[in-house]
């Protein structure tokens, strides 16, 4: 039972470490130039209360947008943002709302919130908000649907391409565009006659096709990704009779976010989940073993045969002992029948007193 308690304790610790609580989320926001957007930042209530708040850009232009210390005016780092920012709430209330107006294409980026909490005798702690934001500001009238693809350093990303409107035209190739600045750039071009890969060597690009509910899906797989490969990507299929003349991202766009951790090395969350599963399986196996042992012990006790009748009557005397006593009584009776001792007669020592009809395996 001590082992079971220890494993249960270990399993609880592992589950606590990986956190089955509310995890952070990632919110996609698409806007047109000139529109507005709002970031709602909050954390779980706790003590001590936060005294400050950061809003940061973490991708295209990594920098601090502003810092807000309690009741002081927000410290906006870029003068161009001062007239476009509107801030409400209070860091000590665990919630801050930030509004951006007059958006520009240069505002496209990944944004994160951080609350500052004072720790006695320790360095102040930065608690990230529960939501991160990806803001895409389009510079034209074409709206896009941005999908998040997250991976790690050295990992890969699969970008599916579909024919427009499910048209069954012959596909002659594929073009992959990437946007990190204001203008998209073609990084992969593949057709039956020509193949080029700017920024991506040929060994890092894999093309494949597979059937799907919408027809044939052509997948572009980018391999061995690095942090600097984080960008917006969109692929366009080259159809017969339709030349590629677009200079913008397609409606379906992927935000490939490459985290600064190597795949399989620093992925502590995956390791903790695997450890939790292993400990849980071991705990269940041990519990099942203990349960089966108890059931087997009980069934063995119930199926034990009752002692023979002769053992109940004379204790634990064996049948051989009984047989010897019986022979001794018969001999004494024969010698003293009618009160007279019978004369000794010659006896065949190779036969039993009953004429060889009684055989036994008892040895003296």
UniProtKB/TrEMBL annotation:
Spans through the membrane: 7-29, 270-292
GO cellular component: membrane
Keyword 4Fe-4S: no
Domain (Ig-like): residue spans on this chain: 33-113
Gene Ontology biological process terms in this record: adaptive immune response
Region of interest: Disordered: 333-364
Keyword annotations: Membrane, Transmembrane, Transmembrane helix
Alphabetized InterPro entries for the sequence: CD7 (IPR039090), Ig-like_dom (IPR007110), Ig-like_dom_sf (IPR036179), Ig-like_fold (IPR013783), Ig_sub (IPR003599), Ig_V-set (IPR013106)
MF GO annotations: signaling receptor activity
Record bears the keyword Transmembrane: yes
Cross-referenced Pfam families: V-set (PF07686)
Stored PROSITE patterns: IG_LIKE
Name used for this protein in its record: LOC107382326-like protein
Taxonomic source organism: Nothobranchius furzeri (Turquoise killifish)
Classification lineage: Eukaryota, Metazoa, Chordata, Craniata, Vertebrata
Gene of this entry: Nfu_g_1_013639
